[in-house]
Amino acid sequence: MSAPAGKIEHSQSRELVLWSCGMGRLRVLESSGAFRFIDLFSGLGGFHVALQELGGQGVFAVEWEPTLNALYRHNFGVEVWSDINRLKTDEDIDQKVPEHHVLTAGFPCQPFSKAGDQLGFQDTVQGNLFFKVHQILKVKRPPRFILENVPNILRHDGGRTKDTMFNMLQDLGYAVKVAHFSPHEFGIPQVRDRAYFVGSLDGLDGFEWPEKHKDPTSISKVLHTSIMSSRPIPDLTLRAIDMWGDFLKRSPSSLKMPSFPIWAMEFGATYPFEFETPSAVWERRRKYGLSGMHVRGSFGFELDGLPIPEQRARIPSHSRRQGDVEFPRWKRTFIRQNREFYRDNAGWINPWMNQWQPWDFPSSFQKMEWNAQGEERDIDNFVLQVRASGVRIKRPTTAPSLIAFTQSQVPILGANLAGGRRYMTPRECANLQSLGDISLPESDLDAYKALGNAVNAKVVKAIAKPLLFAIPGATNTRTTRTVGAAS
């Protein structure tokens, strides 16, 4: 009598018996009673932390970055394969990849992210690595998998990328579901939406996604008040924070702060944007450009009488890209909103501009995103982040979404949160990813980058638990377990 496809059972001899579609019976020696998992594109090991806490045993990992490769071995005692593309053939995979019950993979997200070129599967460096995951699933046939990526992968290429993934996985015999979750929905003070795909060879009828919570969160849960950042905040960044702090203080208490990004370079500007762009004018009037049209550039700077190269320097960077003959609707809307906001508030904005001269700051410091509607306007009460889109000001309920940081994008804690303005430390960011006390890269920059690419272990654990232990027919014990029907 055969067991259901995909089911994992313990025999009396403490050997793990794996049943898998099309493979018959596999005997997997296993002394600890743990289910076995592999961790592809493992990074810092968020999947490993989660599944190990559920009683799993990591038996294989892949990570191409040498520092993280060595660190994974140090943290988890698992030898790490360096380049997944060296597993070229089915025979390579069959020989090199151990038998396992759960495959996990946070395959590269850049080709599917809205922040990238969105080449998807056409990205021959990273976008096609899903196909390598598919090949391993085809050869090794683990009963379960969990995949993670950016939520935009569900919409990428009009939904065709998601459909391709579903079709390929279902053709292997897997039932597949996908949903997206953020750490803040599990009590962790970080908003970081990610898509999670789960698959099972014996169906997902009994599987339920974990419940999302709406309990309040606070960044204080992850802070170490006795630890100070080893890297000082640059003087220019501190001055920009002071500038926007003064902007908030000058704003009338009766004024509702805008929910749209504030683009200070549009204060006083009158160059065309609704039906024509500066680039279109420069193409149409190749000798004079905007000169003689009696319009003004950034911060109301004069353009008349200037040659085109000097005109270009006085137009905001978001409006002077060559070839932009028409702005997208969202950009026209932001420009219009900022000009109207300035028109209605010039009485207190002009003295602010005269004092701080924001045109002397880099473009990213000339913009501000206020994400704390209704709060007291003291900038040191908040979590700050310098991004290309501006100085983002967030409530201390959550940290900004961890990304593969440049040094300038590490979250900054306001003085009232941390006893003085400082960057969040790598250890605090590791807490945001629920990674416990694992060792991190020695370089802060390397640590921040790795943490920005990491998967949140608590979110994975919440998804994996019902996948592994909640499908009907499974037992809910640590010593006798039917993994495959997920309880």
From TrEMBL:
<feature type="active site">
    <location>
        <position position="109"/>
    </location>
</feature>
<keyword id="KW-0949">S-adenosyl-L-methionine</keyword>
<dbReference type="InterPro" id="IPR001525">
    <property type="entry name" value="C5_MeTfrase"/>
</dbReference>
<dbReference type="InterPro" id="IPR029063">
    <property type="entry name" value="SAM-dependent_MTases_sf"/>
</dbReference>
<dbReference type="GO" id="GO:0009307">
    <property type="term" value="P:DNA restriction-modification system"/>
</dbReference>
<dbReference type="GO" id="GO:0032259">
    <property type="term" value="P:methylation"/>
</dbReference>
<dbReference type="InterPro" id="IPR050750">
    <property type="entry name" value="C5-MTase"/>
</dbReference>
<keyword id="KW-0489">Methyltransferase</keyword>
<comment type="similarity">
    <text>Belongs to the class I-like SAM-binding methyltransferase superfamily. C5-methyltransferase family.</text>
</comment>
<keyword id="KW-0680">Restriction system</keyword>
<keyword id="KW-0808">Transferase</keyword>
<dbReference type="GO" id="GO:0003886">
    <property type="term" value="F:DNA (cytosine-5-)-methyltransferase activity"/>
</dbReference>
<dbReference type="Pfam" id="PF00145">
    <property type="entry name" value="DNA_methylase"/>
</dbReference>
<protein>
    <recommendedName>
        <fullName>DNA (cytosine-5-)-methyltransferase</fullName>
        <ecNumber>2.1.1.37</ecNumber>
    </recommendedName>
</protein>
